[in-house]
Amino acid sequence: MASNVNPTVRRRRLGQELRRLRELKGMTAEEVAERLLVSQSKISRLENGRRSISQRDVRDLCGVYEVEDQRIVDSLMQMAKDSRQQGWWHAFGDIPYSVYIGLETDAESLRVYEPQIITGLLQTRPYAEAIVQGGSPESTEQENDKRVEVRLRRQSRITAEQDPLRLWVVLDEAALHRVVGSRQVMREQLEHVLELSQLPHVTVQVLPFEVGAHAGINGQYSILEFADAADSSVVYIEGVTSDLYLEKPHDVQKYTVMYEHLRAQSLNVEQSRRLVERLAKEYAR
């Protein structure tokens, strides 16, 4: 599924390099913005990779930073060009979380804590349809269908023959008991989780009710890690109207430690499978 050029990752790497050049020059984002007669927020968005960057922007910034090596300028210009290409998800139109999809497409591993529902990468079509319709009651049928198709397309990272996504999921037990769609939908969904959990690169643990208060009590989050050392890990927190991406090392470390606590508090892999299997049989009655 991943293309040779991932525009999201290109923007992110380009932004990191531009930030490095600014810091080497000893300039603040405000000073750069003043020199270029643009807003400080534009410089910040360019550096964090959340905004498309033109070759003209790169040229102007390299001028401000007095980059004399033309090979560096040409490399950055090419990255800007690549960053404006479209990923597979753009074929579905405006996707609110397109930045996340770009990161997930290029990630080497993904750790997810999900307190309410079965996480998207493990969902069956009927379950996904029920989740999307329930979560977006005012959206059109066409909009909901598009969201479902994007979700199912993302799942090919798990079943890919080469370099599949390494997925570790901690599911709150509540997600297994919440009847989404129907009891039949839930039975099929839990059986699907059991099937995918047999893959060597997929690990599923259940956080049982009996744990009580726990390290994930504040809600869902994901941690994405990348094969390229130049790409720092990202913590993703999904919101209703906007999403949060945390990349500062101390933020990522805090969430990583929280995730380790969640894993320790959860049932082990075999215990989790037995619980999922038991509930799947109960839904079949």
Brief rundown of the structure:
With 285 residues, this protein is α/β, with parallel strands linked by helices. Helix content is 52%, strand content 11%. It has a six-stranded mixed beta sheet, sandwiched between helices.
Please characterize this protein's 3D structure:
This protein has 285 residues and is of the alpha/beta class. It has 13 helices and 6 strands. It has a 6-stranded mixed sheet with strand order 3-2-1-4-5-6, with helices on both faces. α4 packs antiparallel against α5 and α7 crosses α8. The protein is elongated, with a radius of gyration of 21 Å. It comes from Streptomyces thermodiastaticus. InterPro entries: Cro/C1-type_HTH (IPR001387), DUF5753 (IPR043917), Lambda_DNA-bd_dom_sf (IPR010982).
Secondary structure class reads: alpha/beta
- Rg, Å, rounded: 21 Å
Gross morphology: elongated
What oligomeric state do these chains adopt? single chain
Q: Averaging pLDDT over every residue, what do you get? A: 88
| DSSP helix fraction | 40-55%
Query: What is the string of SSEs from the N terminus onward?
Result: HHHHHHEHHHEHHEEEEHH
**Residues in β-strands, percent:** 5-15%
The DSSP helix count reads: 13
**Whole-Å distance between the termini?**
38 Å
Low-confidence stretches: none
Query: Spatial order of the strands in the main sheet?
Result: 3-2-1-4-5-6
The number of strands is 6
Give a short account of the largest sheet.
6 strands, mixed
